[in-house]
From TrEMBL:
Keyword entries, A-Z: Membrane, Transmembrane, Transmembrane helix
Record's keyword annotation contains Cytoplasm: no
Coiled coil: none
PROSITE patterns reported for this sequence: PROKAR_LIPOPROTEIN (PS51257)
UniProt organism field: Streptomyces spiralis
Residue spans crossing the bilayer: 7-30, 36-57, 69-93, 99-122, 143-164, 199-219, 240-265, 285-308
Listed name of the protein: Uncharacterized protein
Length: 328
């Protein structure tokens, strides 16, 4: 794992250097590209990861190196911000703002996973791995899942009103469809809206399904309708990967967006009305959206942590007591 991390780090640093020297922006603020010079930050993250990874391979995951690994992992996670939106736009037939920026999101996310795995890996004596029986999350985590589900209800109602042709916040469904067309929405997206189905509501439904799969026992075993996989244990990475990506994207967006909306509500900053009749209408819609993302993102993070802890094998639990040695 340590060597794999070093290989990734060298490649990531080279990717950042090549994009910077070719004046290709890697970081975006919405649809607007950021300064090309920020590409040096990507190069620096890769170089730092290579140095720390090499030290781990040579000397093993010592406490100081573990801390550095987690620090670089956090930096890679920040660089991966926006991956969820790339996946969503591609899933509905829309293009990404920049192929290089999307590649940066993918590479950074892969690096964050490798760095986290390296920080946790130790070499230990072989042992029989026994997966624990499927269990439910604690009551506190399930209450968080309830909150994460309820937070999407106002958002879903608002979107469905528009999708069905109604009016909300002074804007009709026809006007919202025209806005989507003007903003370059894909044919799939527009077709769903013409059928009265909002694409973001469908994604929210998938998010709620994932959330409850993480906190309930049925999320650890393949269901009956999966034929050959029926009754087999679900690989841990299968639900945890989208959960981590979702939480890492929704929490910052929701928390920062909520802070901005709070400042706008207090009159400290002005909320641009955009496509809405007034700033108050735009603020109402913004509150509904960012509150849903913030609460659901936090609930997803708590559920993912609970799922990860509940599905650890007994072999992994014993390895935590082993003496750290070199990571291969």
């Amino acid at each position: 794992m340590g060597r794999a991390t070093v290989i990734w780090a060298v490649g990531y640093a080279g990717f950042g250097l090549a994009c910077t020297l070719s004046s290709t922006p890697l970081l975006y603020a919405g649809p607007r590209p950021g300064p090309v010079a920020l590409g040096w930050a990507v190069t620096a993250v890769g170089a730092l990861a290579a140095a720390v990874g090499t030290a781990v391979v040579r000397h093993g995951p010592r406490p100081v190196l573990r801390v550095l690994l987690w620090m670089v992992c956090a930096l890679a996670g920040i660089a991966a911000f926006g991956l969820l939106m790339d996946v969503i736009t591609l899933a509905f037939g829309q293009g990404v703002d920049s192929a290089a920026a999307a590649a940066n999101h993918v590479l950074a996310a892969a690096g964050a996973l490798l760095l986290a795995a390296t920080a946790r890996s130790v070499r230990h004596l072989p042992a029989v791995s026994e997966a624990p029986a499927p269990t439910a999350a604690s009551k506190q985590v399930q209450l968080a899942a309830c909150a994460g589900t309820a937070a999407f209800l106002p958002y879903a109602v608002m979107k469905l009103i528009w999708a069905l042709g109604g009016t909300f916040a002074g804007v009709s469904g026809e006007e919202m469809l025209a806005v989507s067309q003007r903003n370059g929405a894909s044919g799939i997206w527009l077709t769903l809206e013409s059928w009265g189905m909002d694409a973001t509501v469908l994604l929210a439904t998938l998010g709620v399904f994932l959330l409850w799969g993480l906190v309930r026992p049925w999320g650890q075993v393949f269901p009956r309708w999966t034929l050959g996989l029926r009754g087999r244990r679900v690989p841990r990475w299968l639900p945890l990967t989208p959960a981590v990506i979702g939480a890492a994207s929704l929490v910052p967006y929701g928390v920062l967006g909520s802070a901005y909306c709070a400042l706008a509500s207090a009159g400290v900053v002005n909320m641009r009305r955009g496509d809405f009749p007034s700033s108050s209408d735009a603020l109402l819609v913004a509150w509904i959206g960012v509150a849903a993302f913030a609460v659901h993102g936090v609930a997803l993070a708590l559920a993912a942590r609970s799922y990860w802890r509940r599905t650890r094998s007994h072999e992994h639990e014993r390895s935590n007591a082993a003496t750290p040695t070199k990571v291969s």
